Every structure is written in C-alpha cells, then in structure tokens.
Structure prediction request, 135 residues.
Amino acid sequence: MRRIAALRDLSDDHHQGVVLAGTAKRAANGEGALSAEEAWDELLLKFEQELAVHFQIEEDFLTAPMIAVGESDVVDQLVEEHRALRSFVAPDSDRTIEALARFGLLLEQHIRFEERTFFEIAQERLDDDTLKRVL
Prediction:
C-alpha cells in the first residue's frame, strides 16, 4: 500500500535506519568500512539525533490511537522493540561486536515490522485528524 502523507516522513526515516542497520551488521562481521568501535560511535550519534526522535513521535502520536481502535498487539510489539533498541544505547550497555550485530538485526526487523504491519494498520484504521497530528 502506498504511504499516506501523514506517515511519509516517518516512513522516509526508515531508509536511514536500514543504512544504519547495515553498517552495524557489516562492522560486526568485519566487512564494513568502519571498525566495530567506529560503528558504535556512529550508531550512538544517529540514535540520539534520529532514531530517538522517530520513536518518540510514534509513541506520542500513534500508540494511544492504535490502542483505542483495538490494535494493542501491534502497539505492544512496537513499544517492546523500541525498548530493546534503546537498551543497546543505554550508558551501561555492552559495546561488543555481538551486541552490534544484534542491534543491526533487530533494527532491520523493526523497520520491516513498521512498514509492513504497523503503518499499514495505522493508515487503514486511524482517522485523518489523528494522522495529521503526526506531521
């Protein structure tokens, strides 16, 4: 389904997320242009500047309306995956190669879930006024 205007910016953010996931996975496998340490530095910066904001918009403007229309299961998955991704960048988290690989995989899977499931349901079930608040 084509993405509606109200969700297009969030959907467009996913391109950068896919790039970041790929960077993390390649660095963890020793295949990328960045070392694992450099990839962690980039990941932490991009998370703070981009992903954290993206997550907050979804949580502030989409989760309650989705629950109100009976979509608590997809909201639970969204919130749980956000929590898991945030745990990788917490100050006390491990900055290992294994954690870098897991982060990359989870971010990639999360983006797929949002595009194929969460946003599809949101644009089908939420009214225009609710969706316009996302802009």
